[in-house]
């Protein structure tokens, strides 16, 4: 009989401290401690984030082990986010994981955060079928916007990416202009539900190949609001739902234009979305609709596995464990960490 594989996953790349336990690819516990401290700053304050990680990491890991109902001694390996992300934040998770692996005398596994977002599709769940290969994944988060061709569990090629802002940033910066707290993406989504998406028009970026740019759209939005508020100081409050719906549609349709081109180019049978912006209700609906129209299989992760979480780190660790892709104690955090087109 095959023995169980139990992995502790640790994620601390930005402002969420998370720990998860996987057993044979199923998630037994996935805990996330959010950091409210950033909400009034309009973005993540790196120094505050790393301090909060230091406070949160021990109780979060402890709690995950309790919820999973396992003993520390049963853990086979510690998988952690090495990068990309904020260096001070990554250092907390990296140092903690190294110490834990050393203390328990078990292997250490480094994980690329962007690869892990894609790997969230491979978390086992009796109700959901995992994607087959090749699989095309649109990874949209606060720090990244990528179209990823997934050739195998750990073999991925980024075929399109943003040349400036990420789509999550374009949501958050617009929310700040609208005086909404950080992170504004979920709030724009919420207000958009009661708005008219055809109320206002924003320009579509014109970028070659499968790449993206969102800086122009963000500036157009800033000027639009500034001009409207000049004429009518209560413009934002009076039209919040319509503004959110129109801007959200522009952003998501821009993302989907290139994704549709990639689907045609790579002729895949299975598509999916990942990352924090994959929690967006309009994007989830549109991707499901595209799947139906084009008779493609569609994978949309549960909400808890879209925004940053350690379950995706644990599942990546699970696959790396089986291939003995371990790392040693000399490893350090890496703020800039690109995915490479080979097994990683
Ligand atoms: O993946 P994630 O948790 O962290 C990064 O790796 O960046 O993504 C966070 C991003 C933020 O920009 C947040 O505003 C956005 O995901 N987000 C959303 C929604 N939920 C989270 N954006 C639009 N609609 C949502 N429902
Ligand atoms: Zn992320």
Query: What structural category arises from helix and sheet content?
Result: alpha/beta
Number of strands: 10
Present as ligands are: 5'-O-[(R)-(carboxyoxy)(hydroxy)phosphoryl]adenosine, zinc ion
- Characterize the largest beta sheet: strand count, sense, and whether it forms a barrel: 5 strands, mixed
Percent helix: 40-55%
Spatial sequence of strands, sheet with the most strands:
3-2-1-4-5
- CATH architectural name of the largest domain: 2-Layer Sandwich
Highest-level CATH class of the largest domain: Alpha Beta
The CATH topology of the largest domain turns out to be Nucleotidyltransferase, domain 5
Question: What's the number of domains?
Answer: 2
Span from first to last CA? 29 Å
CATH superfamily of the largest domain: ATPase, nucleotide binding domain
Question: What is the ordering of alpha helices and beta strands?
Answer: EEEHEHEHEEEHHHHEHEH
| Shape annotation | globular
Low-confidence stretches: none
> DSSP helix count?
9
Please compute the radius of gyration using only Cα atoms. 20 Å
Chain-averaged pLDDT = 94
**In what range is the share of β-strand residues?**
15-25%
């Amino acid at each position: 009989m095959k023995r169980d594989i139990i992995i502790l996953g640790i994620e601390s790349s930005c402002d969420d401290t998370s720990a998860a336990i996987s057993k044979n690819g199923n998630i037994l516990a996935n805990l996330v401690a959010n950091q409210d401290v950033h909400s009034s700053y309009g973005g993540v304050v790196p120094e505050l984030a790393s301090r909060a990680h230091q406070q949160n990491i021990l109780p979060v890991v402890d709690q995950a082990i309790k919820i999973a109902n396992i003993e520390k001694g049963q853990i086979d390996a510690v998988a952690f986010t090495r990068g990309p992300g904020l260096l001070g934040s990554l250092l907390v998770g990296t140092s903690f994981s190294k110490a834990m692996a050393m203390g328990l005398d078990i292997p250490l596994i480094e994980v690329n955060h962007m690869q892990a977002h894609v790997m969230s599709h491979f978390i086992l769940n009796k109700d959901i079928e995992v994607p087959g290969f090749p699989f095309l994944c649109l990874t949209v988060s606060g720090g990244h916007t990528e179209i990823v061709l997934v050739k195998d569990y750990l073999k991925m090629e980024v075929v399109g990416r943003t040349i400036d802002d990420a789509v999550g940033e374009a949501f958050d910066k617009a929310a700040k202009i609208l005086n909404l707290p950080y992170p504004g993406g979920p709030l724009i989504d919420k207000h958009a539900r009661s708005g008219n998406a055809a109320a206002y028009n924003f320009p579509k970026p014109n970028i070659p190949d499968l790449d993206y740019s969102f800086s122009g759209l963000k500036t157009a939005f800033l000027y639009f609001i500034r001009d409207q508020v000049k004429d009518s100081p209560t413009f934002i409050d009076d039209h919040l739902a319509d503004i959110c719906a129109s801007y959200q549609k522009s952003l998501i349709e821009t993302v989907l234009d290139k994704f549709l081109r990639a689907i045609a180019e790579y002729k895949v049978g299975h598509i999916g979305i990942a990352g924090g912006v994959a929690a967006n209700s309009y994007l989830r609906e549109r991707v499901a609709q595209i799947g139906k129209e084009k008779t493609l299989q569609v994978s949309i992760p549960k909400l808890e596995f879209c925004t940053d979480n350690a379950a995706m780190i644990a599942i990546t660790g699970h696959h790396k464990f089986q291939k003995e892709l371990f790392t040693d104690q000399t490893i350090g955090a890496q703020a800039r960490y690109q995915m490479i087109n080979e097994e990683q």
